[in-house]
User: Fold this.
Amino acid sequence: ELKVEQNPLFLSMQEGKNYTIYCNYSTTSDRLYWYRQDPGKSLESLFVLLSNGAVKQEGRLMASLDTKARLSTLHITAAVHDLSATYFCAVDAGKLIFGQGTTLQVKP
Amino acid sequence: DTEVTQTPKHLVMGMTNKKSLKCEQHMGHRAMYWYKQKAKKPPELMFVYSYEKLSINESVPSRFSPECPNSSLLNLHLHALQPEDSALYLCASHPGGLYNEQFFGPGTRLTVL
Assistant:
């Protein structure tokens, strides 16, 4: 059974700091997605990573994929309060398998 | 039109009621999905329609009945639900091809009393 594990599950950080969220998965896949979800809202697509070594950046967020290590990272640079949300990674294994989600709280 | 829409936004129903959730997209996507999401949990796949045919049913109880009347519309019919079915129900669509992501609708917040 494919498992997708994120860590940490909860992250409280100060504005201006850097941090990384990790997403490990248990089977071969070269398609991984990152989504953001605000409380009570739907999922917003952040990044689509489609090959080994893929790196994508948008603003203060950068995502990467290492298919050999079965690992994706979401790096936050100089966090701001607006980044507070829950972040999900999802692996495409014929259907999307989501990680548990990482709730990010950025404090002033 | 580049979005997935869902109605209603909120729904409160009793355990004996029959109601339906509606999802619509006009992006020409040929795959559509229903997910259930409980608080502080990831979305759980319920059903997948591909080219208007049910392709995946994740062992969902029969009190949930999906319907895809055409390529733009997806319904979820609800009957005799239980309080534990209260959740956010998300619809998504996919354009096809291996290298595209799913697009999610805003969701319907369902409360079963």
Notes: Residues 66 and 76 of chain B are 4 Å apart (CA to CA). The first strand of chain B starts at residue 4 and ends at 7. The mean pLDDT of chain B is 94. Chain B touches chain A at residues 40-43, 45, 48, 56, 88, 90, 98-107, 109 (CB under 8 Å).
